Amino acid sequence: MELVVAGPADEALLLDLLNTTPVIDGVAHDELAESRAARKWLRDRGVAPTDAQLAALREVRPVLQGVVRGEAKPAALHGFLDGVRLEPTVSGSGLDWRLAVDDAAARVVLAWDALRISSPGRLRPCANTECRLFLLDRSKPNTARWCSMAVCGNRMKARRHYRRTRT
Ligand SMILES: [Zn+2]
């Protein structure tokens, strides 16, 4: 029995969710705070734009952010996996099993765990401590430090340069 727990769309949903609380110019934002924008956000990612899905994602988000930052234990994710179940179907040669996940919060938790196993350490917080974003490093050397080279990478480089030239 081979079971696919999470695919690229689930990983993208996870990373996007983790990154919905950016700090811009020192001010914390929440891209899921406003109901209309949040519904569009859900629809764009193939999630049913319902109050229940939105509430569940808002609830699991800080827990997952804490776990990825190493500030919370994975046990905190307990309770977000209700409704995940195995569904058998009879095929020509026997049974096929499929994981049924109706809940978007469960989807991102499963995606987090699948990445933990397949790509350990590659989902991590941006090295810019003033940035609250996360990155998923798919590069071979696995040395990416910034959520975005264009934003945080250059900002940190400029800061180091500024310090060097001052001293
Ligand atoms: Zn960053």
From TrEMBL:
Residues 122-164 form the Zinc finger CGNR domain. It holds the Pfam family ABATE. It comes from the Bacteria. InterPro entries: ABATE (IPR010852), ABATE_dom_sf (IPR023286), Znf_CGNR (IPR021005). This is Conserved protein containing a Zn-ribbon-like motif, possibly RNA-binding.
